[in-house]
Design a protein that fits this description.
Blueprint: H1 4-18, E1 26-32, H2 36-48, E2 53-59, H3 61-70, H4 73-76, H5 81-92, E3 96-100, H6 113-126, H7 128-135, E4 141-144, H8 149-155, H9 161-175, H10 183-204, E5 208-213, E6 216-221, E7 229-230, E8 233-234, E9 240-241, E10 250-252, E11 259-264, E12 269-271, E13 274-284, E14 287-295, H11 297-304, E15 313-318, H12 324-327, H13 335-338, E16 344-348, H14 363-368, E17 377-381, E18 388-392, E19 398-403, E20 406-407
Parallel strand pairs: 1-2, 1-3, 3-4
Antiparallel strand pairs: 5-6, 5-18, 6-11, 7-10, 8-9, 10-15, 11-13, 12-13, 13-14, 15-16, 16-17, 18-19, 19-20
Amino acid sequence: MADVKMQEKYAELALKTGVNLQKGQALMINSSIEGVDFTRIVVRKAYELGAKDVIINWQDDEITLLKYQNESEEVLMDIPQWQVDKYLSYAEDGVALLSIRSTNPDLLKDVDPAKVAKASKARAEAMREFQKYTMNDRIAWSIISIPTGDWAQKIFPDSDVEEAKEKLWDQIFKIVRVDQEDPIAAWDKHNQTLKDAHQILNEKKYRQLIFKAPGTDITFDLPEGHIWKGGGAYTTDGLHFNPNMPTEEVFTVPHKYGVNGVVSSTKPLIYGGNMIDHFSLTFEEGKVVDFKAEQGYETLKHLLETDEGAKRLGELALVPDASPISQSGLIFYNTLFDENASCHIALGKAYPTNLEGGSDMSNEELDQHGVNDSLTHVDFMIGSAELDIDGVTADGKTEPVFRKGAWALDI
């Protein structure tokens, strides 16, 4: 059993630095029943901080699998309106949303990918209005993870369940800085480092970034008025929060019509309870026109077929190979962690906040500025110690941004 005091420090960090819970504010938690002990710690801490209400949405991997094995597509695709209204009513009240993600990476590997894709798309369509609250930072939200047995043993296959969970707890505590004397102060310092990095990139105003590595030769146009962000964010009401814990990235929006070349994955992607690995995508004028995958080809195909926007990009993120997650030498089979070990891009919806004035634009205006829209947003990793990145300035000059997976700028 992981040290309870460390779990309490982690819970406090998630509430104070993650969602920045305010006195008199409601908190909604999405969590796995396998993590009930930690979730109870979070709930107790939330009330101590003055939460007026704590709402729990429980998930259970075994029941989820049973539903996919036994329910028809029609039933899985039927999202009751009351479920949608529940999220919307709390969002309208300014709820803080904390998601504790710890799903078994292989949960749905034996389920028809088409069935999973249809159910995922139906839920995304139903929750489209709620998605605006998170994608536009109208509410504070944060994602963290805790060990579960299946996930831990995926990472540490030679250990029994309890030993694997202990090893994963140790890694998580280290990666999210809970092992430091004052994790909140450590995160304040880390957020400042990421802020310094994205401020330098915002001053550069690159019109293009060119990525080259084994299997990758691709150019990303950047929209005029694009904004680099990273670390903490601010709600529309001015409240600071950290959407992802851990986070090591600075990110922006690529032009949805201006991506050309081939890009290859460097880490597995877990999507819809299935693994996609050793895959590549070919882009022309921003759209995927060809793709390959040694594992999970059908799952990747269904992801790309979610809607028209799923074939285009919504995010471009820079992460040096020296990040603590990369240096752990582990593959976490969890996008929250693996994306922060590596430069990555995301298929699907872009964050309107990555464009000047984007949060106030209509979908048509966002499209005119090159900002992608989709029901999905799926990050996958393309960085490595072999990645070189060049930036093209407004006057056409080219300068190094990354060399061999490390910053070439003074960051």
